[in-house]
Amino acid sequence: MIDLLRRLAPPLPAALLAFAALFAQATAASAETARIGAFTLSYDPAEWRIDGGGSTFMAVCGVDACSHAVVAVTITPAAEWCDTEVARQAAAAAFPWTNRHASNMHARDGYALYFVSAGDGFYDPDHRDPAYACINHRGLRYEFLSKLGVGEEPGPFHAGAVFDLLSGLAAPPPELIALKVEELTFNLADDVWSAGDPEGADGPWSITCLPPACSEHVGVLIGANPVPLVGTCEAMLLPGDGQYTSSETAVVGDGVAFTVTVHHSMCRAWTPPSVEACAVYNGVRYTVSTGIPISGCYFGPHLGEGTLLDLIEGITVE
Predict the structure, then answer these.
(1) Domain holding 159: CATH number?
(2) What tens digit of pLDDT does each residue of 162-205 get?
(3) Residues of 246-259 as b/e, b for ≥16 C-beta within 10 angstroms?
(4) Residue 136 lies in a domain
(5) Contact 295, 240 (CB under 8 A)
């Protein structure tokens, strides 16, 4: 019997692989795509219909599997960043009869999806909750809103159906923004960074780390000053109250050697570290910093050391 099982066992993985390949082919053949602004939405045409174009779309589900949901999509210039709080407030305004707004950020490849499932606070085994979602992308806000008729309520698992639909969104490849600071050029991938105007003729230059690369929108300042005025590299962010530990990492961007210093709080509760980088090149001290020293124990947005290292390694010299 054992010999028989051994003889039968080898073909099993091949059969499973063949079945998986056929399933993938069938799934790919049944999917369609639609352009939603800069994004590509993959969806099942047996369940969803996508109407519209330009800056307004309507996603309509015609079957029970996706709760007969109707989702309005709008693309508008962004006056402010969408985040968990902005999304929560938008959902509360869109669905005034609800009093519970579970707002979360979901990391996607190249963008952050802020999704809100709204409810009236009572347990519903069918989860009949309307949904709101938003995305920031290249100065535009993409909003997705459950559309309900007068007196209508969401179908069963409505928010889940909308979330599943939005899981098919794919962002375009990132573009590079070249930010020139004296002799150095910081090459910013626009799915990680947003660049602002310098605060003065000689800087500092302001950039913003975007979710999901950072936990929230984190401002970063890039400075360039002659060494005789500011001195060589030294600790720029002196930690505030409390104990801390520090670590240093050397990283090179196109021949320019930076020292990255991270100050870690000794708080029992996790506190975002302060991160800074410094280099001297041709008589100019270059600094990259959030400008926020450690002070007290708190949880908040932070710039990850890895994100800063990637930024420096992408530097090019004129």
Answers:
(1) 3.40.1000.10
(2) 999 999 999 999 999 999 999 999 999 999 999 987 777 677 99
(3) eeeeebebeebebe
(4) yes
(5) yes
How far from 259 is each of 200, 213, 234, CA to CA, in Å?
25, 21, 10
What is the maximum alpha-carbon separation in the chain?
85
180 lies in the same domain as 166:
no
Tell me the pLDDT tens digit for each residue of 117-136: 998 766 666 667 899 999 99
CATH classification of the domain holding 286: 3.40.1000
What would the pLDDT profile of 26-52 be if each residue is shown by its tens digit? 444 478 999 999 999 999 999 999 999
The conformational region for residue 212 under phi > 0 = left, psi -120 to 50 = alpha, else beta, is alpha
**Chosen domain end from 142, 170, 198:** 170
Residue 129 maps to a domain: yes
How many independent structural domains does the chain possess? 2
Report the distance separating Cα 129 and Cα 153, nearest Å. 8
In what helix (H) or strand (E) does residue 21 lie, and over which residues does it extend?
helix 11-30
Q: In terms of Cα–Cα distance, which of 208, 211, 193 is closest to 104?
A: 211
Q: Which domain holds residue 116?
A: 31-170
For residues 248 and 203, state if they share a domain.
yes
- 225 and 198 in one domain? yes
Q: Write down the residue that tokens 């080898």 correspond to.
A: 10
Whether 115 and 213 have beta carbons less than 8 Å apart is answered as no
